[in-house]
Amino acid sequence: xxxxxxxxEFADEAKNYEDVKFFAKTKNQLVIFILIxxxxxxxxxxxxxISWIGIAIYLVLAxxxxxxxxxxxxxxxxxxLADKILxxxxxxxxxxxxxxxxxxxxLSYSAYRVATELKKQKGHQPDD
Length: 128
Hints:
single chain, mainly alpha
């Protein structure tokens, strides 16, 4: 799997979803990314800061993403991208923000596509 998976890879993961191992599922990779980023953020955040609210929201969204809720994937991607743009606009060095933002967007896109494919295969709409 390259940076951006192909349609065949999305369909294959959705088709064999029950047999795919935990770390091979794109939604689980996104959840792990959120947990790692939140852990790093907790390490750098002061004792009382507005950032705790964002971390809490990310962790709640991670739970919904684990359950394959597509809206949570979109909300996380938009929030994370807005956060990275804000950090860059405040004068931080853009290298790490761009790298982490790109990884988040690729994982979010992949997880969204697989969740959409799973929804098509099941033929019903439990999460929206």
